[in-house]
Amino acid sequence: MCFLFSKNHCLHCTSPTEALYICTLMANDNKLAAIIAHCKEYGFIFQSSELYDGLSAVYDYGQMGVELKKNIRETWWRSMVYGNENIVGLDSAIFMHPTIWKASGHVDNFSDPMIDNKDSNKRYRADHLIEGHLAYLGVATEEIAEHPMMVAFEKLLTENNFEGIKQLIVDNNICCPISKTCNWTDVRQFNLMFSTQVGSVAEESDTIYLRPETAQGIFVNFLNVQKTARLKIPFGIAQVGKAFRNEIVARGFIFRMREFEQMEMQFFVRPGTQKYWYEHWKQVRMQWHLDLGISANKYRFHDHLKLAHYADMACDIEYDFPMGFKEVEGIHSRTDFDLKQHQEYSKKKIQYFDNDLDENGKAYGNYTPYVIETSIGLDRTIMLVLSEAYCEEDLSTADKQDSRVVLKFPPKLAPIKLAILPLMKKDGLPEIAREIMKDCIDSFHCFYEEKDSIGKRYRRMDALGTPFCVTVDHDTKTDGMVTIRHRDSMLQERIKIEDVKSIVLKAL
Ligand code: ATP
Q1: Neighbours of 175 (CB within 10 A)
Q2: 120 forms bridges with which residues in the sheet?
Q3: What is the helix (H) or strand (E) element at residue 255, kind and residue range?
Q4: Residue 406 lies in a domain
Q5: Final residue in a domain of this structure, among 176, 191, 206
Q6: Ligand 1, CB within 6 Å, residue ranges
Q7: Distance 193 CA to ligand 1 centre (A)
Q8: Which residue among 41, 67, 296, 451 has the highest number of C-beta atoms inside a 10 angstrom radius?
């Protein structure tokens, strides 16, 4: 599927109707298209397998994207693991025993309702189809969830009434955007887990799954980590890793992918204290977002009215993406569901012994801890950071038309922190620039470039989001000073060579 669309028409697809459907859902916003094109042009994100016409909803991170991704991952890890004495990290395998997914409920419950159009052979998620139809009718994105059609859909879904969902689609004359017909199949549940075979001999092989969330790797290692790290409740286990979901309709660039990365933390607490810790983590996680330098009005909490089978409280942190407010992070109070399920299915005791005393002076003793989970998509956070940073500026003056595209990343997230630019390729300027580079390279990511005019080099660094450029010129040889240029203000000042590193470090 292609997302390179303009206001009314996809620039890439042969099928304008398909694009129109997507465009409607994307609230006709050109900003997303501009970000996608920019990401490709400057080496942030490429469509996977582009050489073979692409693989839908799978993306590769290029030389700039991989740095941005690493910096966001590190910012999360630092605040979560290094910033909390009672949280430790884990890196569990993607493949796990298949019974884990039976115990967690994913084999039976991790599914979306889908419907196929018999004329176009296109498959849709029933809720997306209804949402798309409402958007097409002009219902504002923030009003879709409360619209009577959506409320009716949610009720039918809760009752597992798939016939009713089909009837709702037919009664409202919701047609396939491709074939324009209402010739629908029945609604069926579609499991989102990818499966594969383990074992070399086909007859003896077992079906295993690619994990759809990283959380279960934490639950099944609860005792290993608690005992070896000698952790006392409350404590958390954090992990970053790939997750895989066979999304029926994946769209919105890296917003909804089939292979993506999650940053999750499971916080184990004493039963009865979950409300306190749930509120605590809601505030802490929102503050993490605000500390990225993003204003509070770009975020909101969305409390779940319909709770997953394992949760007693849940909410999303939503960000105002170019296509409207959408989930970037989930905070869930998962009760003791997962640990109890793994205890039952593995037939091994999974409990914690709490020797703290209650108000009556009695030890709390053995119990199954409750869990508060914070779960954020790394790729979705990248999209958030790109949406926030992307800026087209008109720099025209009375005599000259001019503009620039600049990525205003917070310096700590920028792929390159400092560009070192000798004004000319000769007269000893490259040697001085290389010396500055040598001094800084161990502390942060630097980039050296001597091609093109200095103006062109500055613009390129703006497009990559580099917060600082220093230029070495002929005067540097005599006065030991360089020009530092600040990305956002474009202000330039002369500073001593010895101060370059500390100025950049201060901004980080
Ligand atoms: P959605 O409602 O958008 O499908 P979800 O509620 O299923 O998301 P969770 O299972 O709570 O999501 O996963 C936690 C986080 O993982 C999400 O907040 C999101 O940032 C990220 N995530 C989930 N699915 C995807 C996906 N297909 N592509 C990219 N990121 C995802």
Answers
A1: 19
A2: none
A3: none
A4: no
A5: 191
A6: 213, 245, 247, 256-257, 260, 262, 327-330, 375-377, 379-380
A7: 13
A8: 67
Q: Summarize pLDDT for 372-420 with one digit per residue, the tens.
A: 999 999 999 999 999 999 999 999 999 999 999 999 999 999 999 999 9
pLDDT computed for residue 201 by the predictor = 64
Q: Do 34 and 99 sit in the same domain of this protein?
A: no
Range of the domain at 321: 62-105+196-386
Count of domains observed in the chain: 4
Which DSSP string corresponds to 30-72? HHHHHHHHHHHHTTSEEETTGGGT--TT-EEE-HHHHHHHHHH
pTM of the full predicted structure? 0.86
Provide the total of helices (H) and of strands (E) in the chain, helices listed first. Answer: 18, 23
CA nearest neighbour of 485 among 476, 477, 495: 495
In which residue are the tokens 């669309």 written? 5
What region does 199 belong to: left with phi over 0, alpha with psi -120 to 50, or beta? left
The answer to which of 198-202, 257-261, 291-295 has the lowest mean pLDDT is 198-202
The CA distances from residue 467 to 8, 217, 234, 415, 420, in Å, are 35, 38, 40, 10, 12
User: Of 369, 386, 403, at which residue does a domain stop?
Assistant: 386
Ligand 1 centroid to residue 254 C-alpha, Å: 11
Contact indicator for 2, 12 with CB cutoff of 8 Å:
yes
In DSSP terms, 419 is beta-bridged to 447, 469
What are the residues facing 262 on neighbouring strands? 241, 377
pLDDT digits (tens, 9 = 90+) for 293-332: 999 999 999 998 778 788 899 999 999 999 889 999 999 9
Task: Name the residue of 128, 375, 376 whose CB sits within 8 Å of the most ligand 1 atoms, as the mutation to test its pocket.
Answer: 375
- Note whether 328 and 422 are same-domain residues: no
Same domain for 160 and 205, yes or no, is no
Task: Report which ligand 1 atom has the smallest distance to the Cα of 264.
Answer: 14
